[in-house]
């Protein structure tokens, strides 16, 4: 016997949870399939929890800005506007300021600082830098709290969550998708792929080519500091090194572009190049001790242009993608939930123009590249 619904959402991370809530809010019968034994066990639960509006593509700016507005109203989100500080190298300063102009034109707050003023929070070596930008509405949230609250809201509206339910294969049969899983068969006219780092594999099991692959990321944590620090998540754009205060500690990291695929566990060999990059800009990092037990790892879900894939799959009836966020899923989930409900119920998303993020862009000669990737 197959279980039927109006929409089947694959993945119960923060994106799938937000989409399920908004779809159920529109009166649809929704079922969420999650391969893990609990929700928010993938990228959501392993996120560094930052939210920011400082992007270079309009769609990304608006996705984050609309989401931040929603998180501000959610006690479960734990939103704290601690800010993001970008330290910008000389060769990128002109293009970075064009990004600031775009952000301000879209109505989001961004401030420009000289190098001396930017050291109001943390000291750094200014060599090679031209200036800094600060987003006062940027900050941190509780991704797990947001995800669980969206799931609670979805279930209160009739949505059903099926844990330990791995998608094995999917095929279109007439007007319905049939999904064979480890817990039986499900049928629905619409499938929403919100499987995070597994979104590419979910596509393959449906016979679809969805260019999303996992990329492992390390988040290192210091031992408790003698005196806790406060300030923004700070990013040195010349190296990609970032850090932010987290309670009595600092957490920090730097993406390894070669670390792709489903490798598991901490890559301690990446600590040395990460610290080398950090100490060049922040020499005081040399005095900090590391806490191995407080450090963790997780997956980004990356696309070729580091932008998400949103909306109907071209040439495939009833398949919708909301995946490939390349590290930005937590900060954009609230808006994506609303957009996917519009896309599925109304036929097209309206809240934000997502045409630049649709699958069709991969067939064009030029792809929009988001420059602010951390």
Automatic annotation (TrEMBL):
Pfam families: DAO
Oxidoreductase in keyword set: yes
UniProt GO molecular function: oxidoreductase activity
InterPro entries with a match to the protein in the record: FAD-dep_OxRdtase, FAD/NAD-bd_sf
Domain FAD dependent oxidoreductase: 6-342
Record-listed E.C. numbers: 1.4.99.6
Gene Ontology terms: cellular component: cytoplasm
Keywords: Oxidoreductase
PANTHER family noted in UniProt: FAD-DEPENDENT OXIDOREDUCTASE DOMAIN-CONTAINING PROTEIN 1, SARCOSINE DEHYDROGENASE-RELATED
Descriptive protein name: FAD-dependent catabolic D-arginine dehydrogenase DauA
């Amino acid at each position: 016997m197959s279980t039927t619904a109006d929409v089947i959402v694959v993945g119960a991370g923060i994106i799938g949870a937000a989409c399920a809530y908004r779809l159920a809010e529109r009166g649809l019968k929704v079922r969420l399939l999650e391969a893990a034994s609990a929700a928010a066990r993938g990228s959501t639960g392993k996120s560094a929890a930052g939210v920011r509006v400082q992007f270079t593509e309009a769609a990304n700016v608006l996705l984050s800005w609309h989401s931040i507005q929603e998180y501000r109203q959610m006690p479960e989100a734990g939103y704290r506007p601690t800010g993001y500080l970008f330290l910008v190298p000389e060769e990128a300063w002109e293009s970075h300021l064009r990004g600031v102009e775009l952000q301000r034109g879209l109505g989001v707050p961004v401030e420009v600082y000289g190098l001396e003023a930017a050291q109001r929070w943390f000291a750094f070596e200014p060599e090679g830098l031209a200036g800094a930008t600060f987003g006062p509405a940027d900050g941190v949230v509780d991704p797990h709290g947001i995800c669980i609250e969206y799931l609670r809201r979805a279930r209160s509206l009739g949505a059903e969550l099926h844990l330990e339910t791995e998608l094995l294969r999917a095929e279109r049969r007439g007007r319905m998708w049939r999904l064979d899983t480890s817990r039986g068969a499900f049928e629905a006219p619409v499938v929403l792929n919100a499987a995070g780092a597994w979104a590419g594999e979910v596509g393959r099991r449906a016979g679809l080519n969805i260019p999303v692959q996992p990329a492992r990321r390390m988040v290192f944590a210091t031992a408790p500091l003698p005196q806790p620090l406060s300030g923004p998540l700070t990013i040195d754009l010349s190296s990609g090194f970032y850090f932010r205060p987290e309670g009595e500690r600092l957490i920090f990291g730097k993406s390894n572009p070669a670390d792709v695929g489903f490798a598991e566990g901490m890559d301690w060999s990446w600590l040395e190049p990460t610290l080398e990059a950090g100490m060049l800009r922040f020499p005081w990092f040399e005095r900090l001790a590391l806490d191995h037990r407080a450090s963790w790892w997780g997956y980004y879900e990356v696309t070729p242009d580091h932008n998400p894939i949103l909306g109907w799959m071209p040439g495939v009836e009833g398949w919708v993608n909301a995946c490939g966020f390349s590290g930005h899923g937590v900060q954009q989930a609230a808006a994506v939930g609303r957009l996917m409900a519009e896309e599925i119920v109304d036929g097209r998303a309206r809240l934000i123009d997502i045409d630049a993020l649709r699958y069709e862009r991969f067939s064009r000669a030029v792809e929009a590249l988001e420059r602010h990737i951390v």
